[in-house]
Every structure is written in C-alpha cells, then in structure tokens.
Amino acid sequence: MIIFYEKDTGKIIGKIDGRVHDKHVLDNAFISHGDDTKIGKYVVPFKNIRKEIEKPIMELRVVDKKTMRVDKVQIGTKKVSKSMGTVPDVPFSDIILDVENGKARIFDYKVKLNSKKEVINIEK
C-alpha cells in the first residue's frame, strides 16, 4: 500500500492498494493536489511470515513382493520453512489490515511524523 498525505497537516489524501509494487510504480506514483511539494508519499513495508513445518520424505518401494506392487512409503521427515503470507511491518499494522479488509477508511486517519518528517504512526 502506498499512502499519500499532506506534509503540513498529516491528512491522508490518497492511497494505492496492494502489497507488492514494481519499481516503476514506486518511483512514479504521485497525487496532484495543489502544490505537489507539500505532498508526502509513504510505502507501507510488509514482511514475510515463515513457519517451520515437517515435510514427509517419500520413497518408492516394493510393498508386495509377490505382485511386485510399488507404492510410496514415508521414510522420514525433514523440516522446511514455508511462507504463511505477509503482514505490515509497522507498529500500526492493525489499522493497515483493517483498511485492506474494508473495515476502516484510510481517509479517517492522519499520519504522525517525527522530527525528520518520517511517518511513525497513523492516528484518527
């Protein structure tokens, strides 16, 4: 998600939905709202959640020597890391998830900036 806001007031004036954007969109996305130098752009970072699971190791073996029937047999397990999706990597991730799911409107919030004019929070 890309959020556009007024630098002076923190008021959110636009957004681009989505978790993954190509370099062209990240570099060239903007909103024209009067004086464009007063518009900030914040790309919400997402992190991948991984879970370690046990996966069976299978092998083909003869299970009936009389008929020579071959079947898959589990001979062990191995631990593998599986992706369980992505979540916002920000302290206000619950708000971002609510906006994505349609439970909240992003325009009801304002961004809070630190002294370096970086987004540190979103608040009503």
Q: How are the strands ordered across the major sheet?
A: 2-1-3
Kindly estimate the percentage of residues that lie in beta strands according to DSSP: over 45%
Q: What is the CA-atom radius of gyration, in angstroms? A: 24 Å
Structural class by sheet pairing and helices: mainly beta
Helix percent band:
10-25%
Number of helices: 2
The coarse silhouette is elongated
**Spatial gap, N to C terminus:** 18 Å
The profile of the biggest β sheet is: 3 strands, antiparallel
| Oligomeric state of this protein | single chain
Number of domains: 2
> What is the average per-residue confidence, as pLDDT, rounded to a whole number?
90
Enumerate the spans where pLDDT stays under 50 for 5 or more consecutive residues: none
Q: Find the count of extended strands (DSSP E, 2+ residues).
A: 7
Run of helices and strands: EEHEEEHEE
Concise account of the structure shown:
By secondary structure, the chain is mainly β. It has two domains: 1-45 and 90-124, no CATH class; 48-85, no CATH class. It has two helices and seven strands, in the order ββαβββαββ.
Describe the structure in your own words.
With 124 residues, this protein is mainly β. It contains 2 helices and 7 strands; from the N terminus they run ββαβββαββ. Strands 2-1-3 form a 3-stranded antiparallel beta sheet, with no helix packed on it. A hairpin with a 4-residue loop joins strand 4 and strand 5 (69-88). It is elongated and about 85 Å long. The mean pLDDT is 90.
SSE topology:
Elements: E1 2-6, E2 12-16, H1 23-28, E3 39-43, E4 46-64, E5 69-88, H2 93-100, E6 110-113, E7 119-123
Antiparallel strand pairs: 1-2, 1-3, 4-5, 6-7
